[in-house]
Amino acid sequence: MSTNLLSTSAAIGFGGVVQEYLWNWENQQLRVVYETLGKGSPLLLLPAFSTVSTRLEMGELARLLAPHFQVVAIDWPGFGQSSRPSLNYRPEIYQQFLEDFVKTIFNTPITVVAAGHAATYVLQLAVKQAAFSRIVLLAPTWRGPLPTMGASQQIAGMVRELVRSPILGQALYKLNTTQSFLSFMYRRHVFTDAAKITPSFIEKKWQTTQQPGARFASAAFVTGNLDAVHEQSDFLKLVQSLTVPLMVVIGESSPPKSREEMNALVALPRVRSVVIPGSLGLHEEYPAVILEAVQDFLFSPEN
After folding, report:
1. Backbone dihedral region of 270: left (phi > 0), alpha (psi from -120 to 50 degrees) or beta?
2. Contacts made by residues 99-103, CB under 8 angstroms, sequence distance 24+
3. Average pLDDT score over residue span 49-74
């Protein structure tokens, strides 16, 4: 495993130093892109898993945090500018990747800010070893879209294999990543201010979905194959097992089922929480509000 500097022409970022982390999984080398901005104690930013997942969705938050921290934001394997091979994407890949990345890049426990589905992976690593000094979860989720809608594991698996298939799968994926469909999904449960969902914004999101191999990890997320736990009780047990401070940020307009799960999380003892405007994409839509809401937690020597 090694890291290399990428030229500015090879990577589009949010103003930081863009590097690649070469990581091996089952004798296959994956190129994972990450970006560093600012100086100070390290802070890891983990974007949410989604069809349009990229570190750039954390870009404005990274810029706001950079005067206080050395911010590192990643593109998960299978997403963003990272390698997108046709792997059977599953929790073991991301559990091992996160453990290896943190061990390689940082030499002390760090602050981590994780959005959406990244929450479970952060909690699992925190319970396993002293990787983090404090944790902020932004609109945390643990169950993928199809299982949340009530699809059985069998149905979800059939959909996943269909999308992975060479010809029909590519056609289905393209239908579900048209600009009109992406705009619909953003208006439905990602952003709350429709004025921010501009044609140029959606165009950039669409471009992310059209990269070679993009459908494989996306299909795994949508169908629940990246769900590292399958019961609410298991997710809550992870939180109860934590020994480091935890703060949760909830969007007041979160979808009802997701909001129920978040409410169960913040009802646990010793979990700090705040409700702010937004929905599942609050980290991209309201970064300044997030910083204001969590700054006391982040900057306080004790929590």
Report:
1. left
2. 99/125, 99/128, 99/129, 99/131, 100/1, 100/23, 101/21, 101/23, 101/32, 101/34, 101/74, 102/44, 102/131, 103/131
3. 97
Residue 5 has a pLDDT of 67
Rg for the chain, CA atoms, rounded: 18
Q: For residues 277-287, give the mean pLDDT.
A: 98
Closest CA to 71 of 106, 107, 98, 21: 106
Residue-wise pLDDT tens digits, 158-214: 888 877 888 888 888 888 899 999 999 999 999 999 999 999 999 999 999 999 999
Q: How far is CA 42 from the centre of its chain?
A: 18
Q: Could you tell me the two tokens for 229?
A: 């736990």
Instruction: Return the structure tokens found at 60.
Output: 């404005």
What tokens does 292 get? 């204001």
Of 7, 38, 155, 23, nearest in space to 102 by CA: 23
Residues sharing a CB contact under 8 Å with residue 101, sequence separation 6 or more, in sequence order: 21, 23, 32, 34, 74
Q: Report helix angle 153-164 to 168-175, nearest 10.
A: 110
Task: Assign 3-state DSSP to the chain and report helix, strand, coil percentages, each to 5.
Answer: 45, 20, 35
Determine whether 119 is exposed, middle or buried from the number of CB atoms within 10 Å of its CB (0-12, 13-18, 19+): buried
CB atoms within 10 A of CB 290: 25
Residue 63 and residue 151: Cα distance in Å, rounded? Answer: 39
Helix (H, G, I), strand (E, B) or coil at 184: helix
